[in-house]
């Protein structure tokens, strides 16, 4: 085989969900791992259910995930003339024929076949009648078998006698799905089709069309579905959301791709992969033939790993964007990117997502007078014994030359020596005073990021509570 050309061909009857995104990722990796091309086709022939909004959402999702495509996006609905041209060629070559059997006729044929212990299928009544109108059916071979080696499932063989003469063109002149897919894949130069295993039954039928047209047959692979933790079909209650919902929830696209890749593909025991590593290591031979289970806890862990490694400035930009979505551009502009860039490194070790990080960052970005205090923490730690200590610490901070982590650490070390106490005696009171709760990053890092003015204002407000 020469250059590999793979494709992703979603139908815009809904948004791109996590299962479709995984299929797109595997198809993208199949091409990129071999230096090939990855094409995108929108299968929008169902005009009643297809929407422009869903089309835009699919394209946005692919862009967000970093799954770039080669060439122009192909819209299947714009190619009906080409599809019909191929059907006419098949009729002229004797590989297709007109059929005028009604739906009731065909239903009766199928019932009769089942009663006789056979496959419920069309019996070929019009196959040799030489009609010139009606639906158009494929004149499929009646003997032998159609075989292919599935990249995931291995060899698959289907007896031709089990397949009927499928319809290629409906009475209204519209081509059927199986015909359109084959023509589009051929014209786009697709050499490798990796898709969900809900299509595995279509593949032998599509191969018959390739053979009728004397076209090269691509290689096929069918990945199994993703299941929920209860081993049932993945649904919204398991986390089967649209891709852009994960963006709104603050997940990083590279983490989403990493997690999806590991749902059905492996390379040794490695869990975390950069996009470059996935491209270098991907091999369809390592795709699993059994369904994978979506684990939201594992997903969050993977995202947390990427949050820890992310560039703080990039996270700062995302925090600015998420804050603007929440409170509006004008209000969000009061917190600049540089401020978030100082805050982010403190929060990266524990942040599960950008949304989670923004929640953790709130105490850092409000003025001291608006800081929310946890009532239980206040009662427990801001006591008559600790408030004088906080007041004295604030006084010492006022005279501090540089307001840095080392200078703050030295100040507190001297303070506890002077009072003959342990650091834990003041740690939680300080934490509650400057953050409002008993949980925060390191105290000296936190104070350095808050700055002298805010730290002092918070300490003194806490003393007055």
TrEMBL record:
Ranges for domain Aminoacyl-tRNA synthetase class I anticodon-binding: 315-462
Cofactor details (free text): Binds 1 zinc ion per subunit.
Cofactor: Zn(2+)
Residue ranges of the motif 'HIGH' region: 10-20
Keyword ATP-binding: yes
Location of the protein in the cell: Cytoplasm
Keyword ATP-binding in annotation: yes
EC category: ligase
EC number(s) stated in the UniProt entry for this protein: 6.1.1.17
Primary localization: cytoplasm
Superkingdom as given in the UniProt entry: Bacteria
GO biological processes: glutamyl-tRNA aminoacylation
One Pfam family hit: Anticodon_2
Domain Glutamyl/glutaminyl-tRNA synthetase class Ib catalytic: 3-301
Gene3D superfamilies: 1.10.10.350, HUPs
Cellular component terms per the entry's GO annotation: cytosol
Entry binding sites for Zn(2+): 99, 101, 126, 128
Annotated function: Catalyzes the attachment of glutamate to tRNA(Glu) in a two-step reaction: glutamate is first activated by ATP to form Glu-AMP and then transferred to the acceptor end of tRNA(Glu).
Family classification: Belongs to the class-I aminoacyl-tRNA synthetase family. Glutamate--tRNA ligase type 1 subfamily.
NCBIfam families (UniProt xref): gltX_bact
Name the record gives this protein: Glutamate--tRNA ligase
Gene name as annotated: gltX
């Amino acid at each position: 085989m020469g250059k590999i050309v793979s494709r992703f061909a979603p139908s815009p009857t809904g948004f791109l969900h996590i299962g479709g995104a995984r299929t797109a990722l595997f198809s993208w990796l199949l091409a990129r791992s071999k230096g090939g091309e990855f094409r995108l086709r929108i299968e929008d022939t169902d005009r009643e259910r297809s929407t422009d909004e869903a089309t835009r959402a699919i394209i946005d999702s692919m862009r967000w995930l970093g799954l770039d495509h080669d060439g122009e996006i192909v819209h299947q609905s714009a190619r009906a003339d080409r599809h019909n041209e191929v059907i006419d060629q098949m009729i002229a070559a004797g590989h297709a024929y007109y059929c005028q059997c009604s739906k009731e006729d065909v239903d009766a044929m199928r019932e009769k076949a089942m009663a006789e212990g056979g496959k419920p299928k069309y019996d070929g009544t019009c196959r040799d009648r030489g009609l010139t109108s009606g639906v158009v059916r494929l004149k499929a071979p009646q003997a032998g078998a159609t075989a292919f080696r599935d990249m995931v499932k291995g060899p698959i063989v289907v007896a031709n006698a089990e397949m009927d003469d499928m319809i290629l063109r409906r009475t209204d002149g519209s081509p059927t799905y199986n015909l359109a897919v084959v023509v589009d894949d051929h014209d786009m130069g697709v050499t490798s089709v990796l898709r969900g295993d809900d299509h595995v039954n279509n593949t032998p039928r599509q191969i018959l069309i390739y053979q009728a047209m004397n076209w090269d047959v691509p290689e096929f692979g069918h990945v199994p579905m993703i299941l929920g933790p209860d081993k049932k079909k993945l649904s919204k209650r398991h986390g089967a959301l649209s891709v852009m919902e994960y963006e709104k929830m603050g997940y990083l696209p590279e983490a989403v791709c990493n997690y999806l890749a590991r749902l059905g593909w492996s390379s040794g025991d490695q869990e975390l992969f950069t996009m470059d590593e996935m491209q270098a290591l991907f091999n369809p031979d390592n795709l699993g033939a059994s369904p994978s289970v979506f684990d939201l806890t594992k997903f969050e862990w993977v995202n947390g790993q990427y949050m820890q490694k992310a560039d703080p400035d990039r996270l700062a930009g995302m925090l600015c964007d998420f804050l603007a979505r929440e409170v509006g551009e004008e209000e969000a502009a009061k917190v600049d990117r540089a401020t978030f860039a100082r805050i982010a490194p403190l929060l990266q070790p524990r942040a599960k997502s950008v949304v989670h990080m923004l929640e953790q960052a709130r105490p850092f970005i409000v003025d001291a007078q608006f800081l929310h205090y946890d009532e239980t923490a206040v009662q427990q730690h801001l006591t008559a014994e600790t408030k004088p200590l906080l007041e004295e610490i604030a006084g010492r901070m006022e005279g501090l030359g540089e307001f840095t982590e080392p200078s703050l650490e030295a100040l507190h070390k001297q303070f506890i020596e002077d009072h003959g106490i342990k650091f834990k005696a003041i740690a939680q009171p300080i934490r509650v005073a400057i953050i409002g709760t008993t949980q925060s990053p390191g105290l000296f890092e936190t104070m350095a990021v808050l700055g002298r003015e805010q730290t002092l204002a918070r300490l003194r407000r806490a003393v007055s509570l």
